[in-house]
Specification:
This protein is α/β, with parallel strands linked by helices. The protein is built from ten helices and seven strands. It starts with 5 loop residues before the first strand and ends in a 19-residue tail after the last helix.
């Protein structure tokens, strides 16, 4: 089979009533684009009839690929499974809940054709509950943009377009799918966003709530560390070690000053314990930094991984003789 021009990746979890309407919308939108396509549905361990309906759809249409996971792994794993099975040079991701509009795919492709590597949808008029969904999302988007330096209004919008060369060697863990634009920008990808439609959910229930706020903050710390210090962890641990050791030595110096100048007994203050604890902590941080440096080198050299990414190589060979 000839490779399609577009691969649509759709994670699915308990969306049995949305599958057929979604595919109809996708097919209608793709007809207007006039490009060959496939859609990779990844069933993430659904407990309803989602997988059976997807398999029936695949039996009727050869453009449908169904990847059924053995259990519910979460959206990040489902997204990775979709990337691994997508064949086209351009990958579009969207949700299965009908809140993303397949008719907006053309907008993403137009922006991609301007030279961008990642185009993210921006749900400018979001149709979700403000207090439980929209407000926490706005706060999270601001934090992620500030911490990563990649300023987007809507990291949580699944409707995105990617060039396949960026995703084929990508490895995601935890719930890192929401940080994909920032992670790819750290590799040199050119990222932008376009406003897209957003519809209220008609069938099924949302899989997200306020409980994911803490997860976002913890994942954000991971993204910041990986982006800025993954090849130089000593800067983080060593910096913390020097600060802790400096504070410990300062506390010890003040303790000696109190003893010699003011005659205050050392055992009457918490300074001996505090200074010792800070100095020991500083030494531990330095040791952790050196150990992290060894682990980093082992990780890259054992897999022959480069610490850089090449966009293109241009050369001209001149025949001689």
């Amino acid at each position: 089979m000839a490779l399609p021009e577009l691969s649509l990746v759709v994670p699915v979890f308990n969306e049995e009533d949305n599958i057929q309407p979604l595919f109809s919308k996708i097919a209608s939108a793709m007809e207007g684009l006039g490009r060959s396509w496939e859609v990779v549905f990844v069933d993430d361990g659904s407990r309803d009839q989602s997988l059976a309906r997807l398999e029936a759809l695949a039996g009727d249409d050869r453009r449908v690929v169904v990847v059924g996971l053995r259990r519910n792994y979460g959206q990040t794993a489902a997204m990775m499974a979709g990337f691994d099975h997508a064949r086209a040079s351009v990958i579009i991701t969207l949700d299965a809940d009908l809140q993303n509009d397949p008719a907006d795919i053309g907008k993403l492709l137009d922006k991609l054709n301007e030279g961008y590597d990642v185009v993210s949808g921006w749900r400018k008029n979001r149709q979700d509950a403000f207090a439980s969904r929209t407000l926490p999302s706005k706060i999270a988007n601001s934090l992620i943009s500030w911490a990563t330096g990649v300023y987007l209004h809507d990291y949580g919008c699944t409707l995105k377009a990617y060039r396949r060369e960026l995703t084929q060697h990508l490895r995601l863990y935890g719930e890192m799918h929401r940080f994909l634009p920032a992670l790819l920008a750290q590799q040199g990808a050119r990222v932008t966003e376009v406003p897209v439609n957003h519809h209220p959910r008609l069938h099924g229930t949302s899989k997200y709530g306020l409980g994911r706020t803490l997860k976002v903050l913890l994942d954000l710390m991971t993204v910041k560390f990986l982006g800025s210090y993954s090849t130089k962890p000593i800067y983080v641990f060593g910096g913390a070690g020097f600060i802790s050791s400096f504070l410990g030595l300062s506390a010890a110096s003040y303790m000696i000053y109190l003893k010699l100048v003011r005659g205050v007994s050392m055992i009457l203050t918490p300074l001996p314990m505090l200074s010792a604890m800070l100095i020991i902590l500083g030494v531990q941080f330095l040791g952790m930094g050196l150990l992290a440096e060894l682990i980093t080198r082992t990780y890259h050299e054992s897999q022959q991984k480069r610490i850089y990414n090449v966009r293109r190589v241009v050369s001209q060979e001149v025949a001689t003789g």
